[in-house]
Amino acid sequence: MGKTLLLFDVDGTLTAARKDITSEMKEFLANIRSSGTQLAVVGGSDLNKIAEQLAGQDLDHLLQQFDYVFAENGVVGYHGNEAYPVHKIQTRLGEDKLQDLINFVLEYFSKLRLPVKRGNFVEFRNGMINFSPIGRSCTHEERADFVVYDNQHKIREQFVKILEEKFASYGLTFAIGGQISVDVYPTGWDKTFCLRYLEKEFDSIHFFGDRTMPGGNDHAIYIDNRVTGHAVEGPMDTISQVETVLKSSS
């Protein structure tokens, strides 16, 4: 394979949505890495959430499991224990535009009628803002119910279209992320952001993600010509597809 990197999304790829990694997946990845293939992870969530899901909130353990770790699409990143510079959305966008966006979304959500609403509708991260119509404080059961409701009523899809029209001149990208939210970030700060640290280091990069459809937060990197993209349907499918890749190149 030459020098190859396996690059993974988190939610829906290495773990079930917002769940912890299983011991089976951890063992599978450890075996691959011990054979000499390097591993990386890139998630839209912040570093604490990724560490929580993949390493029981232990950042040091997370950095030991993977050769590269990228949070918030790569604006926060590590190679081993070495941290890359952090990029911030407020520096790129400016406070006035940032507040225009947040104020509009809060007003929009205030008029939106859903089966339930909870708290934490706006989560401010380094390189993006995450907006959730139901609120990120919902329970797992409420989250699952929202997934069904959203599939039927296209709540997030309509929300993205409105944001694209309203803020067309702001240089932002709006992507459906995970199960309950929409990620907003400067155009180009999608998951391809992390490739600037990887593309010259490897002969081939295989990316595995579940939201690879247009509008999904894995789409941009999935179709990027610097990677070979693999669309997966959950952790077990990820294992199956990785095994196929490794077998075909052995």
From TrEMBL:
Asked whether the UniProt record includes Isomerase among its keywords, one would answer yes
Subcellular localization is given as:
Cytoplasm
Name a Pfam family for this protein: PMM
BP-aspect Gene Ontology terms? GDP-mannose biosynthetic process; mannose metabolic process; protein N-linked glycosylation
Q: Which residues form a coiled coil?
A: none
**Annotated SUPFAM superfamilies:** HAD-like (SSF56784)
Which pathway is it part of?
Answer: Nucleotide-sugar biosynthesis; GDP-alpha-D-mannose biosynthesis; alpha-D-mannose 1-phosphate from D-fructose 6-phosphate: step 2/2
Q: Which GO terms describe its cellular component?
A: cytosol
Question: What broad class of enzyme is this?
Answer: isomerase
Keywords assigned by UniProt?
A: Cytoplasm, Isomerase, Magnesium, Metal-binding
Which reaction does this enzyme catalyse, per its entry?
A: alpha-D-mannose 1-phosphate = D-mannose 6-phosphate
Where is Mg(2+) bound in this sequence? 9, 11, 210, 222, 224
Q: What is its EC number?
A: 5.4.2.8
Cofactor(s) of this protein: Mg(2+)
Indicate which residues the UniProt annotation says bind alpha-D-mannose 1-phosphate.
18, 125, 136, 143, 181, 183
Q: What is its main location?
A: cytoplasm
**Location of the active site:** 9, 11
Q: Does the keyword Heme apply?
A: no
Task: Provide a Gene Ontology MF annotation, just one.
Answer: metal ion binding
PANTHER family, A to Z: PHOSPHOMANNOMUTASE
- Report the protein name in the record: Phosphomannomutase
Q: Which organism is it from?
A: Mesorhabditis spiculigera
